[in-house]
Amino acid sequence: MILKGPTGCGKTRFVEYMAAKLNKPLVTVACNEDTTASDLTGRFLLSGDSTDWHDGPLTAAVRHGAICYLDEVVEARADALVVIHPLTDDRRILPLDKRGELIHAHPDFQLVVSYNPGYQAFGKDLKPSTRQRFGAIEFHYADEAAEADIVAHEGEVERNIAVRLVRIAAQSRQLRGRGLVEGISTRMLVQAAALIRSGIDAPAACALAMTCPLTDDDEVRTALDGFVRAQF
Amino acid sequence: MILKGPTGCGKTRFVEYMAAKLNKPLVTVACNEDTTASDLTGRFLLSGDSTDWHDGPLTAAVRHGAICYLDEVVEARADALVVIHPLTDDRRILPLDKRGELIHAHPDFQLVVSYNPGYQAFGKDLKPSTRQRFGAIEFHYADEAAEADIVAHEGEVERNIAVRLVRIAAQSRQLRGRGLVEGISTRMLVQAAALIRSGIDAPAACALAMTCPLTDDDEVRTALDGFVRAQF
Amino acid sequence: MILKGPTGCGKTRFVEYMAAKLNKPLVTVACNEDTTASDLTGRFLLSGDSTDWHDGPLTAAVRHGAICYLDEVVEARADALVVIHPLTDDRRILPLDKRGELIHAHPDFQLVVSYNPGYQAFGKDLKPSTRQRFGAIEFHYADEAAEADIVAHEGEVERNIAVRLVRIAAQSRQLRGRGLVEGISTRMLVQAAALIRSGIDAPAACALAMTCPLTDDDEVRTALDGFVRAQF
Amino acid sequence: MILKGPTGCGKTRFVEYMAAKLNKPLVTVACNEDTTASDLTGRFLLSGDSTDWHDGPLTAAVRHGAICYLDEVVEARADALVVIHPLTDDRRILPLDKRGELIHAHPDFQLVVSYNPGYQAFGKDLKPSTRQRFGAIEFHYADEAAEADIVAHEGEVERNIAVRLVRIAAQSRQLRGRGLVEGISTRMLVQAAALIRSGIDAPAACALAMTCPLTDDDEVRTALDGFVRAQF
Amino acid sequence: MILKGPTGCGKTRFVEYMAAKLNKPLVTVACNEDTTASDLTGRFLLSGDSTDWHDGPLTAAVRHGAICYLDEVVEARADALVVIHPLTDDRRILPLDKRGELIHAHPDFQLVVSYNPGYQAFGKDLKPSTRQRFGAIEFHYADEAAEADIVAHEGEVERNIAVRLVRIAAQSRQLRGRGLVEGISTRMLVQAAALIRSGIDAPAACALAMTCPLTDDDEVRTALDGFVRAQF
Amino acid sequence: MILKGPTGCGKTRFVEYMAAKLNKPLVTVACNEDTTASDLTGRFLLSGDSTDWHDGPLTAAVRHGAICYLDEVVEARADALVVIHPLTDDRRILPLDKRGELIHAHPDFQLVVSYNPGYQAFGKDLKPSTRQRFGAIEFHYADEAAEADIVAHEGEVERNIAVRLVRIAAQSRQLRGRGLVEGISTRMLVQAAALIRSGIDAPAACALAMTCPLTDDDEVRTALDGFVRAQF
């Protein structure tokens, strides 16, 4: 299964929820441009005089029937994407070339990957032959009412505050493609809310947790600060 | 033999069928941009204190007279394509440089490679001197009636449903080169049919198995969703 | 926490001050384009006949609860930035792949990174998914009065001299983006002040410590020398 | 000696004929972009506990006085071309750096290289200082009558069939530079003839052995199929 | 300290003079694009059966309190420039990662680097954060009278000859940026003078030591030869 | 000393002559884009169980006082050019980093390098700081009369034949920059003369030894063949 959606919209949460609901162990790997096949499948490690094989997270999930969640999978290197191919068709096998072992996936093994379509401008994309192996679900930020509930609950602030934060985020998301790669995420809203709750005044908390980390562009920053001032 | 055709049109199935009909073992290698000569021919692996040679899939096929099928062969690295050269002329030999061994191919050994001409836009192509070593067969998606039969049979849905799915696919294939690298494949149709059969309503099944994995482009997605709505 | 601001404006000083105030050990790493994950986490080193593991600065800070300060973090290589990811979310863990060890961060461990937004013209930037993990504080040069106090105190010159030096710096900072990547920093002012105090006449000290190191461009140099002559 | 000419026009046959006529052993190396100096000169290989030196094909030819034929020499990597330099001037020596050995060429040793000038569009060319070391002979496809004789003889078909196949090839060679890197080679004609002789009808045999492997371009393919239809 | 100025204007001489005057040992490293951190700090070398650490030139200078002079420092690789950073701020330390040793610089240790601003066209430049760590002195060729003295003294020719050579050099330096990267240096003048003194006639000596090495451009060469003819 | 001039004009011959005249051993290294510092200075080689150091050609010349001739020096890699720097100034030393040895050059050691200014179009050039270390002599092809003498003598043909060959070469050299990187060299003329002497008729000998190796361009070839026909 492919989960598509912007950073911090709840893809990881969704996978954690499904794992809990299905009562299966969950193995999460945050992929990046240095994630190689060995990072997923395992490697030989020094232990005293000898070298022992240590299963990587994907191998462990395949052996023991866990859900393996590859976050931001388009960031991983090509050879990492390749090891998942024989796992995602009829064969359901994982070949460990370095060990000369071929693992047949545990019947409970499931593979979930996620990526952010908004990053394709960076030239990262999945190949058609990889896409064909998955079903896909699209994620969006929650609607304003639901997002305010989340921020109020997770950040432990009054709903009143949460609503204003969510409005700032909604406006920032309009700037996507016009100076911002992404708008303010739900995660950032929760962080700002927690700062406000700890006693920092709202504009400073918004600067610290939301507008200052989000951009270095003076014009965009001015626009974001305007959104904040309009609410607080 | 070269098999040319789009992803998921049945090239692999054809090879599996021929292997079964000829009663020969089949060794399939899904090539990718990290497939090297060693991945095909074999390597030395640690086993306890010593290092032992393990034949790769091509070597095993050459020794024992199997059909070796290199899927998406244009993806493999140049040195991987090179090891097949002496196998595909009069010599029919496989030199294993690292072992200092020269294998004469078993008389039953056959080599089949496939690639997708639609991917040439990515700059991947076979060299003329490689092409000259093979005969070639072109594959296309089955015509609509035959494809509907396949979808109805493999997805276990009524022919009525299968016909509509095939129409969506036919329309999506018109978008090739206009926003899509490839249209919806037969394989995706079978997956959508299986979801419909499991009780998911048709538009949701089409989104999950067909339109959502296929593209991240909003305009193309809207067009695809229109094709779905026109059928269901 | 991210600290953003120009070179030599006091980011490092701020971290040192906070570490002293919080009574925590501080581990500083000046990142550069050859800073790898191993430079941060540690490596095996030869010691006589055997190879022993030596913790890198980040690992030491994680184990013992220090503040780890990564200066100019955008310079570091991608794999170095990646090792901080699991440290900066709920997990607060540091995996040492090469050792097969997983360290849970000491409760006192804190991570502070800094970068200079003015260098983004060089194509160095943080990824959105990294930015989301941090709060951020913006630094600017101190205002002229405060900066003069600093220069007078640190350079041990009369306030009168310090004021003139600060005026030169303020003018040079107007040239940012018009021939200069950065203006004269507070650090350079302190160096010039110290030279003046040691008996070198002011224009020569300004050339030696400020205008000559700052640029090789004849036009910009002439402008800077004009600023110096206007004060001394 | 340099042999220049298109793929499949008989360069390799010519060398084999000359070797037979001169009664000298022939060592053929098909060069490719991964052919390194070690592939030509030899390397140390594991054999049980020790590592033994194994002469490469060029070294063997130099030692024992064979003809060494480097096919498609422009494909080889620069260091491979360099090892032949001291062999091709007055010195006639082959230095084996890794072994610390210097071999004086056997008096019977001869070096023949070939390349296809039609591939220069790919940026592959010999350096002037390399060219100066060789004499050169140009090869072309045989004239139509002679080529028909070859096809009839090698493909074991009636001359009538061979003549028609040769006409198709002649027309295809007009397309060189207008959509085709190379026309249909004599080798392809022989393969098509052999298929016809095995009972496949002529248009299908031409598609399988000639037009389908040669191109993926729809327009060029249509032109080639037209040439076939005009003959059969 | 940074010394800036054209090739052969006396930067190295200046450092040698200062070292002699201060009665300190001098360690000179001519940097180039393959100069790595290990070249400066040291490496493990084979000596019989064991591997011993050998201090590099920078390490030796740091330990024993010498002046270390890095000539053409912008040529060195990034990691080489990085090892000097902790040496050039308050810390004055040199970390030897590979040995796990941290050296505190000897109080007499001084670091001088030089580069040629005229080479910046080649894309080589110091980073602002590196420049900030140094004071800088600019060097120019000596004025014509002083340069004639130097040439007469070092080349052991009559002042009359030296004056004419210096005039040629002065004219050549006008061509900087118009076909020449650099004009004729003082060093070249001394070499030409020495050739004249050894009995070679002046135009031939100028060609041999000055104009022929300086350029391969026919037009520029003609201009330079004109300057020579005007003097001799 | 730098020798500049086209391929095959006699630079190597000149060095051999000077070495013979000065009664010094000569060590020649043909540089290429894979020539590294180790190729010049030496390396550790396996010999039975131990690894022994073997001096490279430059090291041998430095130790024993030979002339070292680096042919086509601009082809060598940057680190190879760097090892000659300390040999070509006052120091006359060769540091062997890998061995931890520093060799002071034998008083008789001399270094001569050559390159072909006509190849600068390929982006190969010497750095100004390298050029400054050498005197330079320019070489041209001999004038027609002298070149005819050489061809008659070395190729053992009548002067009449040699004169005609030289005329062809002179015309071909007019094509430099208009389709040819270099014209026909003296060396090629000698080879053609030798073929004529062995009984091959003149036009065929010229094609084999001169025009066919020189170019793959049909137009240029036609022009060259015209020059040949005009003489024979």
UniProtKB/TrEMBL annotation, chains A, B, C, D, E, F:
Domain CbbQ/NirQ/NorQ C-terminal span(s) in chain numbering: 147-230
What Pfam families does the record tag this protein with?
AAA_5, CbbQ_C
InterPro entries in the record, alphabetically?
ATPase_dyneun-rel_AAA, CbbQ/NirQ/NorQ/GpvN, CbbQ_C, P-loop_NTPase
Does Cytoplasm appear among the keywords? no
Residue span(s) of domain ATPase dynein-related AAA: 1-134
Please report which protein family the annotation says this sequence is part of: Belongs to the CbbQ/NirQ/NorQ/GpvN family.
The molecule here is called Nitric oxide reductase NorQ protein
